[in-house]
Amino acid sequence: MVVAILPLIVSCIPESDFSNSNQSETITIEATNEILIEIPQTSTPDPVETEELEPSPTLESATNSSTNLQPTMIPCSGQLTSPNQEGPFYKAGSPERKSLIDEGMAGIPILIFGRVFDQDCNPMTGVKLDFWHADVDGEYDNIGYTLRGHQFSDENGYFSIESIEPTPYTGRPSHIHVKLFARDGQELLTTQMYFPGSETSGDVQNAPDLLATYLEPDSEGRQQVLFNFIVHP
Ligand SMILES: [Fe+2]
Fold first, then answer.
1. Same domain, yes or no, for 97 and 40?
2. How far is the CA of 87 from the centre of ligand 1 (A)?
3. How far is the CA of 170 from the centre of ligand 1 (A)?
4. pTM score > 0.90 for this model?
5. Are residues 91 and 167 in the same domain?
6. Each residue of 138-189: pLDDT tens digit?
7. Which residues have a beta carbon within 5 Å of ligand 1, which is an ion?
8. Helix H or strand E encompassing 200
9. Which pLDDT tens digit goes with each residue over 147-156?
């Protein structure tokens, strides 16, 4: 099955990430510090497996048009996502929404997407992902819900949310906070996603898996940001 999707995965991964291009041997693709997949190469893809990769209408609607990266093609590392400090600005009760961008808001639009898995790489459905972060001036909205909102993972563990690229503020690299909750409300994880420019920060040095992966901009010009979550159910 994995062989059949290789060309599509390749379309969004820099060539330099391939460690071996010999098709008679195993190829290793390392798209991020949190994704490592081994793909045995064969000359004839299994037609049955290829058939299973056809997206359903639901998946197609969630697909990014510029990369053809279907939700089911996002691989799982099986390594638990590192926790990270909550900070002082979490506020419960955020609205459910697909975009944190309000009309007229300054900032560079980004589209964050990924999947939620358990440690055995089973997709986790119905997980609440609650995001919050600072605006371009490094300020949090502690009165309303600007740049605060949540999403639920779908039947493939997939989620996506639009926002603006986070801005570093005093003493902190660029980051977006997130909390994950199970269907019963149990908290699964509190952590932060870090963005390019944060590589030398102590947070990323201590937990490299928290560095988000930048892909190519999508057809709407939004920077695509891939981030998976692996949690204990
Ligand atoms: Fe923060």
1. no
2. 6
3. 10
4. no
5. yes
6. 999 999 999 999 999 999 999 999 999 999 988 899 999 999 999 999 999 9
7. 87
8. none
9. 999 999 999 9
